[in-house]
Amino acid sequence: MNLILIIALLAVGSYLVAVIENWTIKGKFRLAAPAMAAMAMLGRESVLSHKPDRLFFETAPVLLLLSALLAIATIPFAPDLIITDLATGALFINAALVYVLVALLMAGWGPNGAYAMIGGWRFLGQLMAYAMLVVMPITAVVMRSESLLTTQIVMSQDDLWNIAYQPLGFALFFIASLALCFLPPFDLPIAKGELAGGVEAEYSGVRLAVFRLGRLMLIFTLAAAIVVFYLGGWSGPFLPPLAWTIIKTMTVAVVMLLAGQLMPRIREAHLLSWGWKIGIPLALINILIVGFLVLMVP
Amino acid sequence: MTAQMFFIGFFGISAIWFGVVVFRTFSMVRSALALLFSQTALGAMFLAMQAEFLGVLQIMMMATEMSIMAIFMVMFMMDPGGMGTMDMTHQKRLSLWAGFVSFVGGVAIAVFVDWGPIAAIAPDAAQQTIDLGLEILGRSMLIFEMAGLTILTAMIAATAISIPELKGKQQ
After folding, report:
1. How far is CA A38 from CA A187, A200, A209, A211, B92, in A?
2. How far is CA A130 from CA A25, A77, A98, A124, in A?
């Protein structure tokens, strides 16, 4: 039952994310726009490039979809509304999301196209920059809850949400989430206007539709993860828990999509340099501060 | 119990099969990702054996590592796509023997080492995570710290020797 409900939530949530994305890019709020775009995409021919690595080409969009789907399995939407409350939940989310990289590498290598290949390898470099900024803030979150159970993480924020308890960790995780979803200003693997679509360049028709759906689900999953790790999950007054999770998740998604529209695309070299020289030291400082707070402050 | 045995067997065979695929393909990216899926199957085996933390960690770590290996394989091999007719294998007799000896060695260790009594019931996953944490920060701390420091030294050394000399010229 939980499984069906959460997948329905994911579907509706991804659709709304698509509506918001359309709104942030084109400035018009049109509820039917993603449905129209999807119908157009499904109606078109799905072209196969010359001498592709067919196995990778076909697997990549599905793997992207699958990794977002697996990550949502350990995210609680309400105290009892979770697919599986794994004892290693917080780590499992990260493990599932690493396969986004594998999917993009496959999508880059598979179609035998120059732009796609550059896009795919670029994302590997991007991962080098953001990976530690995903893991280290999660470590600090787990230090406070003293458990990898995601439900436990939500309950540890009963008194004070983590966004106030460890704002530095939140800022780093938020930026890393944007990079993980390859949203602007970190849309290096796609890079419209520069790589002509990058990893998406050779995809069309139904394959492109699956790829785009995977990415929308990824954005929704990451927004839900931010809510669980930093915004107190389902907790809130008056409304039922599920309503709070949905409101918070959609708000985070809006901020994620808006943030990128205000900034120019970051260069790969700058991303790596800032990620390692500024991001990782800050993440370590965050762990130290949280360690101090957990041990010293009652 | 039977379901557990089935999944251990299934993922074990998958791990071996993907390991074979590594050497059957000529595409470097396929080869690297086949190794990734072999390791992922090992991680799934850990999960089937109720070692949850180890399993998830294995599945997570290998994805990044094997992807990085893929780009190095593409950079260093002459025919990374494997679409040419070039034979990229060498020292076949030596590698055959090396493979055979390590296989026999591995089997011998598995069979002849006294593994001690087998735990009847595995502690639950949350308890395992706690136990592992206490082990790493207790008895095994020195080993882990040494390993970490060694890797860090190697990383710094590798970066240092790969940076071109900047004397007298602008970057």
Report:
1. 21, 15, 7, 12, 52
2. 24, 26, 11, 10
pLDDT, block means (10 residues), chain A with 298 residues: 87 91 86 87 84 88 92 90 88 92 92 89 92 93 91 90 92 94 88 84 88 93 94 88 92 91 88 93 95 87
The residue in chain B having the minimum alpha-carbon distance to the alpha carbon of residue A146 is: B130
Residue A134 to residue A171: CA distance in whole angstroms: 11
The residues, ordered by sequence, that sit 6+ positions from A147 with a Cβ below 8 Å of its Cβ are A153, A156, B126
Task: State the helix-helix crossing angle for A114-145 and B52-76, rounded to 10 degrees.
Answer: 150
Q: How far apart are CA A261 and CA A249, in angstroms?
A: 19
Smallest Cα distance from A81 to chain B, Å: 20
For B105-159, the three-class secondary structure string (H helix, E strand, C coil) is HHHHHHHHCCCCCCCCCCCCHHHHHHHHHHHHCCCCHHHHHHHHHHHHHHHHHHH
CA–CA distance, A235 with A159 (Å, rounded to integer) = 10
Q: What pTM was estimated for this model as a whole?
A: 0.90
Q: What is the ipTM of this complex?
A: 0.85
CA distance A128 to chain B (A): 9
CB contact under 8 A, A55 and B64: no
Residues of B in contact with A121 (CB under 8 A): 71
Contact A151, A79 (CB under 8 A): yes
Rounded Cα distance, A75 and A226, in Å: 10
Angstrom distance (rounded) from CA A217 to CA A21 = 12
